[in-house]
Amino acid sequence: MAMRQATDDVRPVTLAEVVAARERIANVVVRTPVVSLDLGPGAPDIRLKLENLQPINAFKLRGAANAVALLPQAERALGVWTISAGNAGQGVAYAARAAGVPCTVVVIETAPASKIERMRSLGARLVMAPFDACWAALEARSFPGIEGTFVHPFDDPDFIAGNATMGLEILEQVPDARAVIAAIGGGGLIAGVGSAVKASRPDVKVWGAEPETAAPGALSFECGEPQQFANWQASFVDGAGGKSMFPRMWQRIKDVVDGSIVVTLDQTKNAMRLMAEKNRVISEGAGALPVAAALTGKAGRGPIVAVVSGGNVDLKVFAQLIGIC
Known about the structure:
Blueprint: H1 15-25, E1 34-37, E2 46-50, H2 60-69, H3 73-77, E3 80-84, H4 87-99, E4 103-108, H5 113-121, E5 125-129, H6 131-140, E6 149-150, H7 157-173, E7 179-183, H8 188-200, E8 205-211, H9 216-223, H10 247-253, E9 259-263, H11 265-279, H12 285-295, E10 304-308, H13 315-321
Parallel strand pairs: 2-10, 3-4, 3-6, 4-5, 7-8, 7-10, 8-9
Antiparallel strand pairs: 1-2
Helix pairs in contact: 1-7, 2-4, 2-7, 7-8, 11-12
């Protein structure tokens, strides 16, 4: 049985931790560009933070690199493992390979073939499991037959501090930003970005974005406490949208996030198409949610920074989703 990590009390991630994380991971991650999504007069001013240009084509490398680097040597020597639909698995596998330690990923069995192949090519041992088993294991922090040190893909202050480095970059790159939008899956991305943005610029709005098929975050903000999402459905948006908001993650995000904007799957496909047409950006579904949310007008006129969290999508599927084949 895998080592069960003790769960510390939830606490805010400090700006000092984020600054230290940025220095720690500087030789691993890319300071990704921000580009304008020019939609003409009358449209919101949307800027794209292109995390799909990280070495693993997703933001998760930030958190994974920081979390693995901060593991005590004795824990790292046992090897690391995580649970993922693909992007966190790539991040932890990449960081583990750099640290010279073995990595296992418990993979949600609906993960796209492109993400599975990338994790395998980074040297990870893969164990496939159903969504519900993976979701339960995220809470239990253990999985039958898996040995080593668990790196939680979102409920971990070191992972969140790594993710938060993106928030520092956004405020430097778009100093007049009025809003930042990031997808909500487990909540580690928005907890990090929100922590960094609100610590530096509390006037900037931080919005989540979720698909209508999986929106426990919006429901939690509506009710003021963490919620289950009863009508959850799997979709091409595999990198965001959970079955529930974990209570610990609700504690992390409720004070640094202003709410969550829910979009339809068609709006998400349209956002993928727009980015491809206007900026030649390939985004996975989760990465397009913030753009779709910005286009609703609910985040204001801008400047709005939409976090394109990843681009790990099978190209054939991408072409079908945006309607070119």
